[in-house]
Write a structure and sequence with these properties.
Blueprint (H helix, E strand, L loop, with lengths): L5 H7 L2 E3 L13 H13 L4 E2 L13 H15 L4 E6 L3 H14 L3 E4 L9 H14 L4 E6 L6 H10 L5 E4 L4 H11 L5 E4 L6 H6 L4 E4 L6 H12 L3 H23 L2 H11 L16 H15 L1
Helix pairs in contact: 2-3, 3-4, 4-5, 5-6, 6-7, 9-10, 10-11, 11-12
């Protein structure tokens, strides 16, 4: 029987939440705070969770911590919501993480971009193929940040691995995305706008049907309002949400996205939901900039 991955495809065509990884006072992962944040997301209507994403500080976690975060997320999700586990690093590490996710009951894995100074397009295919072939039962979602990668290479990967069902596309160029998606096969994959709410309207107009979000940690209803508007084709309503979140996302994107996670954790800290600490190479927000973030978060929770 051929696996169709219909449930996984549906889950990707949604707000794909990237939970933060909260840390305790001693710097370790705080399981209690993480469970609380997950429950808040799920109670807020989120149906797709990505543990070990960039907003979860994937590259700053140890292998043991990444496994813990995966385990906590699958446990919290239960039978309903979908879990898309971030995996990456070298091929053996990524394969081991993907198999761990599968054995726990996760439905999909998102493969972080290969971290290597020399990435060839054929090598990109080889990297993802090795991971996808190791877990044929799981839906596989490449995370694409490489503007040089062609849509034909993604199609080549999917020819070899039919479990490659979606794409998190995070190149900040809507025209390039539109061309890439059509070269790869617009209807062949679920296209997820990987640069979150700021890019979601333009990427939806070009064929995306889901978007990732770190902001959703702070205000689930705001993210859900945007996707409801985009699904109905009401772009003026979607842009009203865009205007609402603009400043928050500008703060995250400043200085080459240096404070991408920092601003989200600061907002959560202002709401009393987790500590503000992030790990190097990120840094906590300076005292002088915290009030603005707190005011934005308070406005959304009012």
């Amino acid at each position: 029987m051929t696996t169709t991955f219909e449930n996984q495809r549906t889950a990707l065509a949604d707000v794909v939440a990237i939970p933060v990884t909260p840390f305790a006072e001693d710097g370790s992962v705080d399981p209690g705070a993480y469970r609380t944040l997950l429950r808040r997301l799920l109670d807020g209507g989120v149906r797709t969770l990505t543990p070990n994403g960039n907003t979860g500080e994937f590259y700053a976690l140890t292998p043991e911590e990444r496994r813990l975060v995966t385990e906590l997320t699958v446990d919290a999700a239960g039978e309903g919501p979908a879990v898309l586990v971030g995996v990456g690093h070298d091929v053996p590490t990524a394969v081991a993480s993907a198999r761990h996710a599968r054995d726990l009951g996760a439905q999909m894995v998102m493969v972080h971009q290969p971290v290597h100074p020399y990435v060839s397009q054929s090598g990109w295919v080889d990297y993802h193929r090795a991971i996808a072939e190791a877990v044929p039962e799981l839906g596989v979602v490449p995370y694409i940040r490489n503007a040089q990668l062609t849509g034909a290479r993604l199609a080549e990967l999917a020819d070899a691995c039919p479990n490659v069902i979606g794409v998190k596309y995070a190149v900040p160029d809507a025209a390039r995305f539109a061309a890439f998606a059509r070269d790869a096969g617009l209807d062949r994959f679920v296209w997820v706008a990987g640069l979150a709410e700021p890019y979601a309207p333009s990427y939806f107009s070009a064929g995306a049907t889901g978007f990732t979000s770190g902001l959703v940690n702070v205000a689930p209803s705001v993210s859900l309002n945007m996707i409801d508007a985009l699904r109905s084709g009401d772009y003026p309503a979607a842009m009203k949400v865009w205007e609402q979140i603009r400043r928050f996302e500008e703060l995250r994107a400043a200085n080459g996205s240096a404070n991408n996670v920092t601003v989200v954790k600061e907002a959560l800290a202002s709401l009393g939901l987790c500590r503000r600490e992030v790990r190097p190479p990120s840094r906590p927000l300076p005292e002088s900039e915290r009030a603005e973030v707190a005011a934005i978060a308070a406005g959304w929770s009012a």
